[in-house]
Protein 1
Amino acid sequence: MLLDVENVTKTFGAAEERIEVLRGVSLSLDAGETLALTGESGSGKSTLLHLIGGLDHPDSGSIRLDGTEVTTLDDAGRARLRRDQVGVVFQQFNLIPSLRVADNISFQARLAGRSDPDWNATLAGRLGLSSQLSKYPEQLSGGQQQRVAIGRTLAAKPPLILADEPTGNLDEATADAVLDAMLTLVRETRSALLIVTHSGHVAARMDRQIHLAKGRIAS
Amino acid sequence: MNVKALAVAICLAAPATGQGFAGLGTEVDGFSVPQPNPTFDFPADHGAHPDYRIEWWYITANLDGADGVEYGLQWTLFRSALAPEDGTGWETPQLWMGHAAITTPTDHFVAERLGRGGVGQAGVTADPFDAWIDDWSLSGPDFDTLRMTAAGADFAYEVDLTATGPLVFQGDRGFSVKSSEGQASYYYSQPFFEVAGTLTLPEGEVAVTGSAWLDREWSSQPLGGDQTGWDWFSLSFDTGERMMGFLLHEGEDTSYTSATWIEPDGSATPYPNGAFAAEPLTITDVGGRDVPTQWQVRLPDRGVDVTVTAMNPQAWMETSVPYWEGPVHIEGSHTGRGYLEMTGYE
Amino acid sequence: MMRAGLQALLSHWTRNPLQLFTLLAGLALATALWSGVQAINAEARASYDAAAQTLGEARYAQLRRADGSPIPQQTYIDLRRAGWLVSPVLEGRAQIGAVDLRIAGIDPLTAPPGVGTIALTNGEIGDFLTGAGQLFATPDTIARIGETPDLTFLPTDGVAPDLAITDIGIAQSLLNAEGEITRLVVIPAQPLGRPPLEQIAPDLVLTAPQNDTDMAQLTDSFHLNLTAFGLLSFAVGIFIVNGAIGLAFEQRRQMFRTLRATGLPLRNLIGLLAAELILFALVAGTIGMALGYLIAAALLPDVAATLRGLYGADIAGTLTFRGGWFVSGLVIALGGTALASIGAMSKLARLPILAAGQGRAWAMVSSARLRIQAIVSVALLLAAAGIAAFGSGLIAGFSLLGALLIGGALALPVILDLLLSVGERIAKSVTAQWFWADTRQQLPGLSLALMALLLAMAANIGVSTMVSSFRLTFIGFLDQRLASEIYVSTETAEGGRLLEEFATEHADAVLPILSAETDLAGLPGTVFGARDHATYRDNWTFLSSTATPWEAVHAGTGILLNEQTARKRELSVGDPLTIGEATFPITGIYGDYGNPTGQAILSEETFRDLFPEAEATRFGLRTSDPEALQETLIYDFGLDASAIIDQAGIKAISLDVFERTFSVTTALNILTLAVAGFAILMSLLTLAGMRLPQLAPVWAQGLTRRALGRYELIRALLLAALTTLVAIPLGIVLAWALLAIVNVEAFGWKLPMYLFPLLYLRLTLLACLAAALAALWPARKLARTPAAHLLKVFSNER
């Protein structure tokens, strides 16, 4: 099993303003498996994704990624986890504005020390970015920016890819194209994918779906 | 240092001005006050009286030059005491001011000197007579035979004065009342000086002859508090008679007048307030001030009704305390020459 | 409508208190440094005026005894009675209360206008004249004197510190000088028929009025330094204010549009914004004036010490509050605000109501703008070079400084952009590559602050180089001028002859200092007669000379001239110079710093031929044992110890003066760098909010927040260090312009320039320290940003 989440809770705010975002969530994911996490706005699905990716840490519960307990890692350990084992695609602001497209794609792979120029070029070609490599992110359209983000995630071939509404800011046609490219490449690299979405259409294309409501798994 | 403050101090002003012209109407404090029925002691009384606040030796002369031009001459030494004390050293409270002038029909040359008593810069001794400030002096073996010198940056003179008549005592035997409130001064004149000497002017030296009039006056509060100036006439008629008359300004329209009629032999008749009258006929702009330079002067008791006209209307004394002083011509019932002094027109 | 509009505008500041603080603090600091320096200058100038007015007799001719002894009072009376209009002055020192008071006694009745001018409005002339004991002094001096039962001190402005003016009678008794007079002032208009002086007082000598001894002229170079500092600090402050106003404008763009869309006319909107800025300027100006007053009060004692030591100018060590200064400070604050807001206001005037809401970040500078900046900068620097080559006059000198500084400042972002792109290209690791790229991206937002740092650094380097060069030159000059081990003076010429006789037996060499006032190529000046001695040949250096300048002088076939006269009259070596009846070729031109008047040197023999009446009362003595010679002079010859000055003592005093000058310079260095550091801090804090979207992806991909914070700090240091790379050459050029152009135009002498690498290193470290301190807080803040803040960047949903 690649990912094992057990009874995770997370609360934001303090005193009377406290919001219990996650109230004991458990789930697991096998290597190469794709899973859709759906739910209403505020159901806690993005938070769960952040916890798994080591971007934030839970109040209680356990998250094991490839046998490593994520919840006990310190700041540096979590940074290492993000760098080496996880690839993240968010709804927006995925890219480093001061770097060119080519450098954005290879950034994380180079950080992790496993950059492969041939694979980077392949990725760029498959994502239709070959002619955009020397441009800066702000010169690209939204769909192109998300493709770069996906390329960046896959360049390092991480065991787990986390995606938070990766097509949420795109129109339907563009979203479909981006999603197609992503699913194809994920399957080729045998990475597992956990995707947060509120679109049933997107969710249906995953191996499995889990619905989150009021901080708990609903079905 | 404020020259005005200094000048006012010299002319006896105590702290607040507005007390008559140049502070001459200020209250007396510790100084002697002139009393009626004076007895003079000469030559001592030709000298200084440090226990009185103000005193002067005042000479004016009407002269004819060898060049045919008429000249006026003035030499004045004022003494002013800050306290009724005398002595030597810088702290002596006797201050001195000298004014000298030559008036020609077209020019008016003025010089002024200030000095301290007590250190020898200025003073008056009675016997032999010597009155001086810096290089200016009026001196001689006696009061009838005097040499008078003065110099400024652009003029100088040196003349000899010889008296041809006696001293004349003004007012009541030398007690000259200046206001209806009783302010008075000791006042005598020598109107019978013959003059000969040399003037130095920018154009060169000129030999001159003529006549001069000397006034001696001392007091401690010669003016009333509301008297703001005066017009003083010393007139020498071609007949050999002399007349002194003054008009003290009291407010807008009122005035206090006094006059003395002097016979050629020196016998004098004083006239009380009201007997003498003087009215301005012509007003001249003198450096922005309105100054009467032609007068109708009357002393009906002696049949005097004359027009007195300034020889040079611009005879303004631009000194620390400014005033008008210059020679005049007399026409009408009598003819002759004289001097006019006007204060309070600043 | 207007009130609602103003409310809306002001609400921006309550939501952005930091921005408000930046605006107010920038303006306050700018006003503070400027007004502080102005206060110091004003205080010093007022003191010079007072000194000049006190006994402003220098512009009158004067009479003294040739041997310097007092004039008997009877001589004064004799002169007056002869028609010489002179006025007595008695001067001396007496311990009065707690003060060693300089007392000047005058006679107000004979003094010419302008001598001993004091306000007598609160005193009574009678008391002044009649020995009642009135003395006039500044309130400060009176306070320090304390209780004096027999004397009445009256406060007045316009009197030099530690000086009391009183009647000559009182002065004579206070100074135990009955019947004595120090000198007589000669009134310009004298009466006709005055006999010659020899007939009345043959022992008195007449000195001509001096028109050129204006203390302000001597000390102008010092004040120029201060003013330059003040002006540059002000410029730096205005940069900060400009940044803050620009940012507030961009952030309120949406609000302006809404206000205008709801019916507020553009004119009213501009009026409201102007009102808002005037309010801020007044508040910040007032705070700045208070700060400026504190700065001036803190620096003034050192400034006073410097001026006293360097130029002998007495200024009070305490500050007087002047209303005019306060008002001018506020005007400067308002003017500065206006200057800083011109850009934003003109943009507002051209803003269409329905423009697209999305604009580029406020400080993003396109490469096109960078290119324009580069062109303007090059044009300005070329203009500066042109002025340096062909310009003349003080105005040209200051234009040169202006063109240099603005050109340099505009070039900075261009140069930094270039350097950073090179760094990016040669970076090996991915983090380094990102660091360079990211730094380059920050450049537009930081460039105003960096320009401020550049100006502060360049000014510091320029002024420090100038002051240090002046110091080195001056020390060298002192070595040249003070070659003798001991300097002695006598009161009389007779004493001088005896001393020379005595000293010849005891010293290795006696060098009389013979001088006379004369006309030098149409300028008033002093000519000296120098004895033929190796001291001069060995120690004097010339700016230009023939091969053997001294030999020619001693052969009577040459003359030496000081630099300022040579420059004023465009004379050079070989040109003829006439002294009295004789003409000599100039064989050498020498530096003569700090002296406003002309000076020339002849041999002793030639001098005595031309000025037979001049006698030496001052001597330089060469000896290998100065202490023994001093003792011999005091015990065997009977010379007063105060008449002997040893060379080491003078040099120690001069060096102390320079240390004081340096403490003022250093204090201003630190203040201007602090202002620049503040500018950096404010820019970084402003940028911090915008930086999260740039940093969050890096964090998400595996960098810790701590590492990001560390990079922020390194970035600030790197930018500061790169800025100093530009600042050092700019500062050196600035120093050159000050020394070689402005000094020559202002004072007539060119100072050689020396470089001080250690000084620049120290300034560089100081600048980096300022930048690091400024970056520390934003970096710490970044290192401690909660993850939630970073995550918020990526989505609108939790």
Note: Residues 8 and 61 of chain A are 4 Å apart (CA to CA).
Protein 2
Amino acid sequence: MTHPGYESQVDLLLDGELTPADARELEAHITGCAECTRLRDERLALRAAITAGVPTFQAPDTLRDRVRATLAAASAETASAETARTERAGAEARARPRPNRVSLGALWRPMALAASLVIVAVGSWNLALRQANHDRLAGEVLASHVRSLMPGHLTDVPSSDQHTVKPWFNGKLDYSPPVHDLAAKGYPLLGGRLDYVNGRPVAVLTYGRRQHLINVFLWPTTQGQSDAPNARDRQGYHLRHWTTPEYMYWVASDLNLAELQDFVRLLQQAD
Amino acid sequence: MLPHMDAAYTLARYWTRNEQDAEDIVQDAYLRALRYFDGYRGESEASARAWLLTIVRNTAYTARKRGRADALTTEYDDTEHSLAAVDDRPDGPQQQRDAKETLGRALDRLATEFREVIVLRELQGLSYKEISEVTGVPVGTVMSRLSRARARLQEVLRDEGGV
């Protein structure tokens, strides 16, 4: 009550709605303010209680079946309207030998179309989402790569020793990324850094090749998530993406394509 | 196969406070989603979920309005401008008020506009902006509703002896 403005600020902080700079400032204030500390702890307790006591629900299988059937029926309606229109046009074109004959095909087609429409609708939705997701990630990876090339941003732990770089991530990430030294193959390890991609902190390993830099981004795959390898070029940089059962990989570099392919292959073999 | 159905069903359950109504809402919402799909211009998995939840929410909202008109009743009115955070409508699933009120029950008894922001934020992790899109109110309103809903739930928690 001493400073009412802070109550909403604490909510913003806990809901992840503050910029990192504002969040740090507020956290510093909270540490020194008993009132705000109490407020924050109460909110945290409430959140814990909600997580523990308020369930989310799983849609019952019967509902899934119902929805699937409804969508199929809706598609069939659209499809049979389509068919009726083409049939009519067709009948007129054929003059009038057998005007009223309904072919088996005409009955069968809307059904098949309906079934495929549902599959296509859901399938293309997922596909479109994955595609959009890739575009977004590629943008984030590229931005991070370009930023890392600015003075002083390349590594948090400059070291060519994999046994220095790997443990450095302990306590900074909830996973321990595999770090390989490829110096013998002509790609010396330069170091590692933390970055923020895909809404999470991720490990970035930096390798060199002559004057060129290669940034390797990796983070754990979420359950069952795997997608096709992906290659794209943007603003003169090459981006490569692949997944292993454990990690999502993105690589960004201005290295020539042949050597970058070679590097990617070495990295995949090392895993 | 059908994306985001658990999220859709959870929102509908808390909106309607009733299993059967929730299932009807979800079915109706997916049908609408299929029809409106051409108009969908989202970019990420998260925005697809927000888009779908918006349809679920609007479907539930429309269904409730229609239900009320059918019943020709004005016995209860929790309009958007309601000042009371607590919904004392006696026909909720938790109508028997035991002496000890649990958090789940307290949530059920919140007026819909407060209940939905809690569900979207705490159970489904939507950002303020996404909640604003789903519920069709400005971000500032989302914040004040969240704040009041939390204050109310916190009282309940305190009475439980939790904090």
Note: The mean pLDDT of chain A is 80.
